[in-house]
């Protein structure tokens, strides 16, 4: 299995060319040892918790090989670019924001979500501990920091404010402050009164000693899906449909393993992505940090109960959850109107994807030791 940068020529093609592409959806070949080579495009240019759980773990545990797959991981900068890549037939699937998939579909890009990854919305608004801001209403007249005005951070913040009866254009100031220590510095200096980040980024700041109070998200965000597996409509309805089942089955095994044994998952992540160690190398401190970040990311993934025997089928999304995502997409201006669910979601693979020995994965996770 290899990992290489993606040339985004296909993603930068005119939309008409993308949507009229007639490729099979995965550009599959067969390796010398009989494995089917497929390409998966991830929406982050730098590896993190998503890539650890969905790629490094199934790779190192042999879950891809068990499914007869040789997976080539490529990268794209964000959901929109990745969606155009799979629509053009240059990759089998991707992990994209559900709202972004709805927006692409409205523009004529032939893509659909087929299984959830994050079903607890990861974005939240944090304020410094001890701040006078105690409720969303207290944000009126305040300044809120977002990663950038073109980011999901800004979209979430505007929707959060609208849901709480606050006009994001008149009642507050929304300022781009980046993320990490840059965002924290803006908060500490008083440049902003609150910041909007996703759970993993807040966990990263908390590891450096920062403390936050989090405002409750509006009901719209309860159990609302965020990131999900997505493929082209042609692949979902064509000869490579079974490859989607095999890929997602292996990936969900990885997600399940990472949820149960995050320490071992980080071992596999560092083996697959040595750059995760950072400038100081593979130290106990860095491993602890990576485990904390993975746990924060996993807290937004499905399922979230502590008893694995009670976990529901991986990837399931209800109409009610998808309707919330559609309402969010409308409220943020990503789509003009709510789509028909069947136009943006295909849940017909879920039963076959979950046809694996869950107990075997649980046992492997419980028995795996770090460093092995």
UniProtKB/TrEMBL annotation:
It comes from the Bacteria. Keywords: Signal. Gene3D superfamilies: Periplasmic binding protein-like II. Residues 50-265 form the SsuA/THI5-like domain. Residues 1-21 form the signal peptide. This is ABC transporter substrate-binding protein. It comes from Micromonospora globbae. The lineage of its organism: Bacteria, Bacillati, Actinomycetota, Actinomycetes, Micromonosporales.
């Amino acid at each position: 299995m290899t990992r290489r940068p993606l040339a985004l020529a296909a993603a930068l093609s005119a939309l008409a060319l993308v949507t009229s592409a007639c490729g099979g959806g995965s550009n599959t070949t067969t390796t010398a040892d009989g494995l089917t080579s497929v390409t998966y495009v991830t929406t982050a240019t730098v590896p993190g918790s998503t890539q650890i759980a969905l790629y490094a773990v199934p790779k190192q545990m042999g879950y891809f090989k068990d499914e007869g797959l040789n997976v080539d991981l490529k990268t794209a900068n964000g959901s929109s670019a990745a969606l155009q890549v799979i629509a053009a037939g240059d990759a089998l699937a991707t992990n994209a924001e559900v709202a972004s998939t709805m927006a692409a579909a409205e523009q004529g890009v032939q893509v659909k979500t087929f299984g959830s990854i994050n079903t607890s919305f990861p974005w939240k608004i944090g304020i410094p501990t001890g701040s006078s801001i105690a409720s969303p209403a207290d944000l009126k007249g305040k300044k809120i920091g977002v990663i950038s005005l073109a980011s999901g951070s800004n979209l979430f913040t505007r929707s959060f404010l609208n849901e709480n009866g606050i006009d994001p254009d008149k009642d507050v100031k929304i300022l781009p402050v980046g993320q990490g220590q840059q965002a924290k510095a803006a908060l500490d200096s008083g440049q902003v009164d609150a910041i909007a980040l996703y759970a993993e980024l807040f966990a990263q700041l908390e590891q450096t000693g920062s403390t936050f109070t989090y405002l409750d998200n509006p009901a719209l965000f309860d159990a609302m899906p965020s990131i999900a597996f997505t493929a082209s409509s042609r692949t979902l309805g064509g000869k490579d449909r079974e490859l989607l089942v095999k890929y997602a089955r292996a990936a969900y095994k990885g997600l399940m393993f990472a949820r149960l044994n995050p320490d071992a998952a980080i071992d596999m992540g560092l083996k697959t992505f040595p750059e995760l160690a950072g400038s100081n190398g593979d130290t106990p401190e860095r491993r602890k940090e990576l485990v904390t970040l993975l746990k924060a990311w996993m807290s937004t993934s499905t399922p979230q109960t502590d008893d694995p025997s009670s976990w529901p089928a991986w990837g399931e999304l209800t109409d009610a959850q998808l309707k919330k995502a559609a309402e969010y997409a409308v409220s943020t201006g990503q789509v003009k109107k709510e789509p028909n669910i069947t136009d943006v979601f295909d849940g017909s693979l879920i039963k076959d994807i979950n046809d694996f020995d869950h107990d075997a994965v649980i046992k492997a996770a419980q028995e795996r030791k770090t460093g092995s």
